[in-house]
Amino acid sequence: MMKKVLYTVLILFLCSASFAQRNKKPAAKPAAKPAVVQAPVVTAPPVPLEPVSKVNKKIKTPPKDGYSVRADVDSNVMVPYADVREEDVYYAKRIWREIDLRDTINSVLKAENAKLIDILLEAVSNEELTAYSPKDTTAGKLLEDNDSFRIALTAKQASEAARGLTEGGADPTTGKVAEPTLRKLRSDEFLKFRIKEDWILDIKRSIFEPRIIGLAPMKMVEGNWQPVFWIYYDDARELLSKKRLTNPLNDASQLTFDDFFVRRLFSSYIVKETNPANKNIVDILGQTDPKDTRKLYESERIKKSISDYEQSLWEY
């Protein structure tokens, strides 16, 4: 009996194993990779390369050269002149002075970076100022010393007058005389300036004061100092009040060229006063010797006469 049971269990086990073997799913095969088709290689046409321009480096701003950098004074206000009516002028005396830049006190007008002659020539060239001829031909004869502001010069004429002409010499080989030509402009030749001024007594304000009328650069011509052209000073004041003056005593000084003239900081000597013959002191004395002291005595005499007149106006 026991054997039958064992055989029956064994047969059932074998049947179940056979049944499970039949129902077992076969292992899935990996999918085949699709065939890779290589794309044709297309070669791009060569592109010409343009030369690459060099990139300019940014210019570095130069450092500030010190704590007082000299520049034009754009916001400076010139010393105002009081209005003077012609009816209030009780007395007037016209004189002419010369400023010698070789004097130490006047040498600031020929400083290397701020020369008065360069300022005037540049302004005339840019037509900011009008230059007037020192010669007058309106009367039918040539007046070499004239300062009436009658004949205005063009910028070209003023430049030619400042440069001057070379002396025409003869060629030693051919003997042909060369025509005079314009010389190169040299600002160091202008070592003098002439001032025309009026000393006026304003009875309304009870003031006796000078007023500069004209300013003329001078250079040596044929052994004599001659004005090159005249500048009407009132027209030049605005320009000169914006130009700093080199002050050897203070680099931070705000002193301008206009201050130098209006405040009478210059040294000068009188060369002429109003006279019937309209002559300079040298012409009246009839001498040209620079060592002759008579012209200095005459200059001081005129200066003293003006001072004496001022002193005689007031009583104590």
From TrEMBL:
Signal peptide: 1-20
Keywords for the protein's UniProt record, in alphabetical order: Signal
Domain of life from the UniProt record: Bacteria
Signal as UniProt keyword: yes
NCBIfam families: GldN (TIGR03523)
Protein name: Gliding motility protein GldN
Organism of origin: Candidatus Pedobacter colombiensis
Lineage, broadest ranks: Bacteria, Pseudomonadati, Bacteroidota, Sphingobacteriia, Sphingobacteriales
Gene: gldN
